[in-house]
Design brief:
about 290 residues, alpha/beta, Rossmann fold, 9-stranded mixed β-sheet, two-stranded antiparallel ribbon, 6 helices, 13 strands, about 35% helix, globular
């Protein structure tokens, strides 16, 4: 199935009104170091193999919650990006907005500091990067992802896109919303991953050494990244329930073991267009540029 929309995109700038073919360029907005893996690690690995001319930039929004680990997280992020075929870029926006949440263990309210999506300087900076890089596709968390920094990242990028639209700056790109903590309500793209690609994602996750924890299992003490379990669950669950969420209940099982799942639409200067038609890309189906170029 080909991705189609119900709205006709505006013409791209070109000579004598002709459209100019753009090389695919993905700009991933990453809330925290290691989210690049969850948002598009497998998609990036497949894209670099199957679309040689593609460029993938991972833009890290914050340095994280622990200032003492900022330099360490930076090095980890760079190593992870290099393994996955991404070009690392960092904003290092400070966490300045205080909100109250409930502690998981005690259910008592506590205050946390997160990224402020309403900060005009942050919005202007992100808008400037979008203009400079001129991506053909943007990937970011979906609006209802559980983590407040993930939601703030999406809100901030949406505000940047809105500011560009209000200034009549041409926009014509694909928008891929991805899951990290919370499931997508209406996905329309599933990308199958082979085991080697999944294991490369796990390898990238292990490069985030600051996230390693130790645990005792019987007489053995092991060191691991607890998010590795989460990564396996997400990729396996996406492969199992993704096809039915995209194609409908009782749809044929494509027999895949790992997958990443997205909600894809097109963004024009006039706003977000209709969502793309449902699509499943199996291991024997090559990725094509139309996923990333409007």
């Amino acid at each position: 199935m080909n991705a189609t929309v119900h709205a006709k995109p505006p013409p791209l700038p070109g000579v004598a009104g002709r459209q100019v073919k753009r090389k695919p360029k993905i700009l991933i907005f990453v809330p925290h170091a290691d989210d690049e893996i969850f948002l598009a690690g497998g998609l990036a690995v497949r894209a670099k193999k199957e679309i040689p001319e593609i460029t993938i930039i991972a833009a890290l929004m914050t340095a994280g919650f622990v200032p003492e680990l900022a330099d360490t997280r930076k090095k980890e992020f760079i190593s992870s990006c290099e393994l996955l075929g991404m070009i690392p870029k960092r904003f290092n926006f400070p966490l300045t907005r205080n909100i109250r949440v409930r502690d998981v263990g005690s259910n008592k309210p506590r205050e946390v500091t997160i990224l402020d999506p309403t900060n005009d300087t942050f919005i202007h900076t992100v808008a400037g990067v979008i203009i400079k890089e001129a991506p053909t596709a943007i990937i970011m968390p979906h609006e209802r992802d559980w983590h407040p920094d993930h939601c703030a990242t999406t809100s901030l990028v949406n505000s940047a896109l809105l500011s560009l639209s209000s200034k009549n700056i041409p926009l014509n790109l694909m928008l891929l919303l991805a899951r990290v903590w919370h499931d997508l309500s209406a996905p329309n793209l599933l990308v199958a991953l082979d085991k080697a690609t999944y294991l490369k994602k796990q390898e990238a996750l292990r490069m985030h050494f600051s996230q390693l924890t130790s645990a005792t299992t019987g007489k053995e003490r092991i060191t691991h990244n607890r998010y590795g379990i989460m990564l396996e669950c997400i990729d396996r669950l996406s492969a199992v329930i993704g096809p039915e969420k995209i194609l409908g209940p009782s749809s044929k099982d494509p027999g895949i073991e790992f997958a990443e799942i997205y909600s894809v639409s097109r963004v024009f200067s006039e706003g977000i267009g209709a969502k793309c038609s449902p699509r499943i890309i199996l291991l024997n189906t090559p990725l094509t540029e139309d996923i990333f170029v409007s």
